[in-house]
Design goal:
mainly alpha; 99% helix
Length: 134
């Protein structure tokens, strides 16, 4: 009877230890599963955040490239506009110089023509006087 009681007590103790150990194992397993889920969630968030960061970076790079292209086009257009403006200014300057030369030449031509008319008129008058004097 004592042996049976001792054996039963040993079985109860072993059962209790197994029960506590099973509870502890189940708790540890649940904790590990929760930890693993947390890690997976964190990895997923990091992955999504990395994709978002890469997408944002690509968008910013594309935007920067667009801005650089626009600046380059504006720069080239400005150079072309400045070149055209300088060409027009030189052309306008050449036209003004030509007009000035033409104006001065015309004044000189008109002056010469008046001088010739006056000289011809003087010659005609002198010839008439000479004719009348003879």
């Amino acid at each position: 009877m004592y042996a049976s009681m001792s054996y039963q007590s040993a079985l109860c103790t072993e059962g209790l230890i197994t029960y506590c150990a099973a509870i502890r194992l189940i708790t540890t397993m649940c904790a590990l599963m929760c930890y693993q889920m947390t890690l997976l969630t964190e990895c997923l968030m990091t992955y999504c955040a990395a994709i978002r960061a890469i997408t944002t970076m690509c968008a910013l790079m594309c935007y920067q490239m667009a801005v650089l292209t626009e600046c380059l086009i504006t720069y080239c257009t400005s150079i072309r506009v400045i070149t055209t403006m300088c060409a027009f200014m030189y052309y306008q300057s050449a036209l003004l110089t030509e007009c000035l030369i033409t104006h001065l030449t015309a004044i000189r031509a008109i002056t010469t023509m008046y001088a010739l008319v006056c000289y011809q008129s003087a010659l005609s008058t002198e010839c008439l006087i000479t004719y009348c004097t003879h």
